[in-house]
Amino acid sequence: MSKLYADIIINISHEALDKVFQYEVPLPLCGEIFVGTRVVVPFGRWNKEQSGYVVGLSETPDYEEEKIKQIIRISTEGTSLEAKLVQLAYWIRENYGSTMIQALRTVLPAAQKVERKQEKIVRLLLSKEETERVLETARKKNRKAQVRLLEEMKEQTVLSWEMVAKKLKISKSTLDRLKEQGILEIQKRNLYRNPISFSISKEIPKKLNMEQQRLIDMFAHDFLNKNYKTYLLHGVTGSGKTEVYMAAIETVLAQGKQAIVLIPEIALTYQTVKRFYQRFGNRVSIMNSRLSKGERYDQMLRARDGEVDIMIGPRSALFTPFQNLGLIVIDEEHENSYKSESIPKYHARETAIARAGMEGASVILGSATPSIESYQKAVTGEFVLWELTKRANPGSRMANVYIEDLREELKSGNRSLFSRRLKAMMEDRLEKGQQIMLFLNRRGYAGFVSCRSCGHVMKCPHCDVSLTAHRGGRLVCHYCGYQVPMPKVCPECQSPYIGTFGTGTQKVEVMVNKEFPQAKVLRMDMDTTRKKNSYEEILSAFSNGEADILIGTQMIVKGHDFSNTTLVGILAADMSLYANDFRASERTFQLLTQAAGRAGRGALAGDVVIQTYHPEHYSIVTAAAQDYHQFYEQEIAYREFLQYPPVYQMMVVFIGCDQLDIGQAAANMLGKELRRQTADLDGYWVIGPSQATITKVKDVYRHVIYVKHKDYEALTRMKDLLEHYMEDKGIFEKAVVAFDFNPMIGY
Ligand code: ADP
Ligand code: ZN
Ligand code: ZN
Q1: What are phi and psi of 349, to 5 degrees?
Q2: Position in ligand 1 atom list of the atom nearest CA 368
Q3: Which residues have C-beta atoms less than 6 Å from ligand 1?
Q4: Could you read off the pLDDT of 557-567 as tens digits, one per residue?
Q5: Is 0.90 surpassed by the pTM of this model?
Q6: What is the spatial distance between Cα 12 and Cα 108, in angstroms, rounded to a whole number?
Q7: For the chain, what percentages of helix, strand and coil (3-state, to nearest 5) are there?
Q8: C-alpha to C-alpha distance for 108 and 319, rounded to whole angstroms
Q9: How far is the CA of 482 from the centre of ligand 3 (A)?
Q10: Using CA positions, which residue lies closest to atom 23 of ligand 1?
């Protein structure tokens, strides 16, 4: 039997991760030592006993054998938090492909010095009754800013300056006036480590309705019996999902355990977080990209030390080092941002389920439009399916949805961006002083070619994805390499109006200004939201009624209550339909459903106009009908037919290289090796290598190979074989290879 060597990290901090020491595993311990095992080793010149973690195992020593010391014993101290996180890192490394160091860096927070900062705060000096009286007067005199401020301060008597100035948009002069009248004072204080530090009065939980209560009873029953499961909560926006999360968290906290709540960064608004604070007070902490690295690290320490029980944050909050994790909630579980774009390309949903499995915790996934992956698992019984079928707020209604066929508009001579119906409705709302959102669907837009007369889109006959226009007049399929020359006229209707279709938000703004010169317009896109907080500022300006029309990309469909918005126009619904990506229909459905959900949330009835060249496409028809189940049935059949995830598992082998010929050669070598390895095995599909859709980024040439199989582990096996194959070949020092499983993006 050959010897076994273990790579051991003594000091498990982010900074020391590169310092791995190799030790020999004594024979009697061979079957008992795994990645993540805590061991005691002789360390340094004096061989002092130190404990460390095993992060890798191999049969070949990296040094002269005489110099390698032996592990003394397995540490008997109970499984520590770190051991669990090391095991999670190992799981990530195995399932998504990366080095152990990369995986550990993902899982362990980087230590950061925290600079203490001071902040300005505004404090209310009046009693509740006095505040009411002042509010009454302010309302009568129509002092809107005062009303806004006092309404907020009625609940929270201390607000940060930032909150007052940026979110509530209260001017300096208003504040000075209130100060002079002795209504409030302005002070400086040390910035508390908790990013939301002002006191919020607790709110009594809502009485759950029958649907909600049934789910929570089920959850509590499972949880108390240590039967930890994954639940998929499917419910339209406003059906009371957040109330269910909070009730489940309460059950978990009552057992002395902690909870992590993942929310996409873009939806991590003040309004969402506030509800958790109102319910759980200062046991809640939040993490987002607006916090400095130091502040984020601080939140991790607070969690580890038991100062907080609930962590709310985007993807990375999944690695919050709670000692006794009981629940992970993932809201908007279908969101792309849960997948990491850098190596390791882990998916927070799958990783959450893995972490929960290791630590004895439950998982709740929630969405109005669940991912096809999750819904399939719910249908097959791997997850527990929970459905909320009604809006929880009796006052709110679903909007009326109209589908407008843009081909008909062109036929009748209307070449404007706005269909006749949308234009008429916009005029009507402007007259009534109600607000309008115009939504431009640009996600996944990648230069597809379509006909403006008949809507025909140039597609690959083998893959059912749109072809991408390349310079030099060629159309290329990036899944299989199929090519055709760019047609001069539409192959369907012979119209000359065929070409790449692209409309930016800026262009829409120009058109709106031209057709509705009297309207005040706000625009939200990558250009206007580059600054910190500008995203929130634009949305709050709009919900404060500072504009009639908000134009935006998918960013505008999230968060905020726009109760005066009674019309949503979706200008070109098909734009995301022909991305070179098998998830194109799913994204379209999700975006349209969310955009439609924006209209008529208040007391006023809402209308939604979906403009499209493909009114018959199932993702548009089912989104208009707000019928998720119908959409799912069609989509899963499509995935099955074309062998895409989740029916088949897919691995992308991505090869990046600054020299085209070397990149190509490396890709060819990997393609050949994959074919050799899979030749005698059942169920594998190897597609490519081919150039990626975007052939070059920052002077790096990109190639891809797709491997499909019904079984995920069959793919990770191939990943392991390729990693091994690349080890001793110099070319892979120049060509960088990355793996992406069940990708969220088109390559
Ligand atoms: P979702 O998370 O599904 O969008 P929320 O939990 O935010 O739904 O609920 C939508 C609205 O309905 C909120 O204003 C919430 O306070 C209210 N609500 C939820 N559950 C109840 C309930 N059981 N009784 C009364 N109001 C409720
Ligand atoms: Zn045509
Ligand atoms: Zn093709």
Answers
A1: -65, -50
A2: 3
A3: 206-209, 212, 235, 237-243, 392-393
A4: 565 667 788 89
A5: no
A6: 9
A7: 40, 25, 40
A8: 7
A9: 5
A10: 208
